[in-house]
Write a structure and sequence with these properties.
Main location: other
GO biological process, one term: cytochrome complex assembly
Helix content: 25-40%
Strand order of the largest sheet: 1-8-7-4-5-6
Largest sheet: 6 strands, mixed
CATH class: Alpha Beta
Subcellular location: Cell envelope
Distance between the termini: 60 Å
Shape: globular
Order of helices and strands: HHEEEEHEHEEEH
CATH architecture: 3-Layer(aba) Sandwich
Protein name: Putative thioredoxin family protein
CATH superfamily: Glutaredoxin
Keywords: Cytochrome c-type biogenesis, Disulfide bond, Redox-active center
């Protein structure tokens, strides 16, 4: 019995840890009757990109954070666009390697209601500004340490990227760096846009 009790407490502790670290999907549900984009993404595309597709339809928790110039951005500002929300840091080598393809991806899809938004998790703003001077980034870079970020976004490492559809519903999550100019990435984004591409008047800038 003592062994069973220890096993129970250990399992329960692991569950709490995983939930706290964000491995459980956010529990903010979308309205009833919504059509989930996750049902339209072929398994082969998700697997090729290593996309963890969320089975349930959940509204992405809003976040607000300033850019290095002090201008505050809200995730909800980009409602109407497919959002690629990327968490990274300047000290993260895989993050730095991913940025060139992510920046080129942002420029490639800029006219198709696809927006890349990144959140730098550095402790010092100076590290981010110095990095951006050396490696210009065309998409918004926000300062996570100075903003209000829901802890459910944080997984077990960075880079961590979320795909959020034009209605603000979480599609899925990618852990680790990706080649955003790869044929698989192009096919995945194309498949999502084919179903959920918003009309121009819905884009909020």
């Amino acid at each position: 019995m003592a062994i069973m009790n220890r096993l129970f407490h250990t399992s329960f502790g692991v569950l709490l840890f995983l939930t706290f670290m964000g491995l459980a999907c956010p529990s903010l549900s979308a309205g009833a009757g919504e059509t989930s984009l996750t049902q339209t993404i072929p398994d082969s595309l998700a697997q090729a990109m290593g996309l963890q597709v969320f089975d349930n339809r959940m509204i992405a928790p809003d976040l607000s954070a300033p850019n290095p110039s002090g201008v505050v951005h809200h995730l909800s500002d980009y409602r109407g666009d497919l959002v690629v929300l990327n968490f990274w840091a300047t000290w993260c080598v895989p993050c730095r390697k991913e940025i060139p393809s992510l920046d080129a991806f942002s420029k490639k899809w800029s006219g198709a209601h696809v927006r890349v938004v990144s959140v730098a998790m550095d402790r010092r703003t100076q590290h981010v500004t110095e990095f951006m001077k050396k490696y210009p980034i065309s998409y918004p870079v926000l300062l996570g340490r100075k903003g209000q970020i829901d802890s459910r976004y944080f997984g077990l490492g960075i880079p961590q990227t979320y795909l959020i559809d034009s209605r603000g519903i979480l599609i899925g999550r990618l852990t680790g760096p990706r080649d955003w100019l790869s044929p698989d990435a192009t096919k995945l984004i194309g498949a999502i846009l084919a179903v959920g591409n918003p009309s121009p008047e819905k884009g909020l800038r």
